[in-house]
Amino acid sequence: MSAEIINLRMVRKQKNRQDKEKTAEDNRRKYGRSKAEREAARQRRETLETHVDGHLLEKPDGPDAEPSDKATTDANTIEAEPSDPGSSGDRG
């Protein structure tokens, strides 16, 4: 008559895993959305964004925006300004 030897630490961990899985399953039922619901929300959000973007007066700066002349303007102002006021050719 030998009893089966069990490791109490392993039993406790297994019970904790089962409890967490049950809690996760309950939360999925309570808070989760179906794939169809998520897809419908995504489509609705995209439709609204397109609608709003179509009514903008000016297009925002972004990756699709046209390059501005700011880089050339900055380069021209840098060349026009002397680097050191004391190093000009006019002395005295």
Key terms:
elongated; 92 residues; mainly alpha
Overview of the structural elements:
It is a single chain. By secondary structure, this protein is mostly helical. Helix content is 60%, strand content 0%.
Provide a brief overview of the structure:
The chain has helices at 8-31, 35-54, 70-80. It is an all-alpha fold and 92 residues long.
- The separation of the N and C termini measures 115 Å
Annotation, overall tally of beta strands: 0
Order of helices and strands: HHH
The percent of residues in helical segments reads: 55-70%
Beta strand %: under 5%
From the structure provided, what is the oligomeric state, counting identical versus distinct chains? single chain
Quick check: average pLDDT? 79
Q: SS-based structural class?
A: mainly alpha
The biggest beta sheet is recorded as: none
Structural shape: elongated
Which blocks of ≥5 consecutive residues have pLDDT under 50? Answer: none
Number of continuous helical runs: 3
Radius of gyration using CA atoms only: 34 Å
